[in-house]
Amino acid sequence: MYEGAVQELIDELGRLPGVGPKSAQRIAFHILESDPEDMSRLASAITTVKEKVKFCQVCGNVTEQETCNICRDPRRDPTMICVVEESKDVIAVERTRSFRGRYHVLGGAINPIAGIGPDQLRIRELLSRLSDEKIEEIIIATDPNLEGEATATYLVRMLKTLGINVTRLASGLPVGGDLEYADEITLGRAFEGRRSLT
Amino acid sequence: MYEGAVQELIDELGRLPGVGPKSAQRIAFHILESDPEDMSRLASAITTVKEKVKFCQVCGNVTEQETCNICRDPRRDPTMICVVEESKDVIAVERTRSFRGRYHVLGGAINPIAGIGPDQLRIRELLSRLSDEKIEEIIIATDPNLEGEATATYLVRMLKTLGINVTRLASGLPVGGDLEYADEITLGRAFEGRRSLT
């Protein structure tokens, strides 16, 4: 409907995740009406990220060097690996300040419908780390949904023969939540995982 | 939380309208994982739109030339002007195929709280069109909300001394809607604007 460049921009924006046709139009007009300098900063942020950002050769996290900040940090415990699906999950765990080991980013979870099996994930890289590094515990922190649980089960089955301590993040009631509104699976898990207070 | 370029991209994306911190992160990772060519197309679409797209010197609509497609089109009725708030509204009216005249884009609506008065809108440009062109009817198609109504009232008061036929789009029940769910103002307007069928 629009003339050339505006329509092209709307089309490109509409391909981004979570951006429908209406938002794409709204963002396109925001870009049109914004300060040219701000918008060239946005355009160059996109280009720069594609040029500079790579994936850590050790853990698969995003980085601008060969290995990421966390893998390079000598203060991190090298005997523990927290296995997550995505780089975003690394940030989520880091925010808790509960974990001082290193990570392994799988790049997704097992999802047969989407055609993602173990070979599409960075599981081979995890195994080679286990033979190279002295790992004592692997914490599986994949998402607590169908795909994440399937991936956790697959990893446990593969790792338990190696004599490494494999753990999984606790499932249970979210802090600040209402017991009444918890779904039955979560509440069931909270019962199974109940802890002694005495 | 992220290293340099990724965080910069998330920050820039987070400034776009309707993009919160979580969506900005999601879009940034989508960009990271996408084909570099697709993403350089997105970046250049942003740059191109800022370089090429201007506002029509006659009506204020977006265009890549001095005047827009519609103002240049000799088949459009030059005696009718449809006054809208934004370029997006031009597209919305065009989609109806109900109007074959030309447009005037105000660039917003009167909104004292946001500091937008008549001087911030392209009302002076509209008045100069009325003295230059032979206009017979002005259709006011500002949004049917507080700001749009205020703008319509202001325009009507200013234009009625000039002897031009000024009309406003009908308010009433949206087609395909339920009478039961119509708000009382809309239903009231539908009564006021009822039409004889005999």
TrEMBL record, chains A, B:
Keyword DNA damage: yes
Signal peptide coordinates: none
One Pfam family matching this protein: RecR_ZnF
Toprim domain sequence ranges: 79-174
C4-type zinc finger span: 56-71
Alphabetic keyword roster: DNA damage, DNA recombination, DNA repair, Metal-binding, Zinc, Zinc-finger
UniProt record similarity statement: Belongs to the RecR family.
PANTHER family: RECOMBINATION PROTEIN RECR
Purpose: May play a role in DNA repair. It seems to be involved in an RecBC-independent recombinational process of DNA repair. It may act with RecF and RecO.
Protein's recorded name: Recombination protein RecR
Organism listed in the record: Arthrobacter pullicola
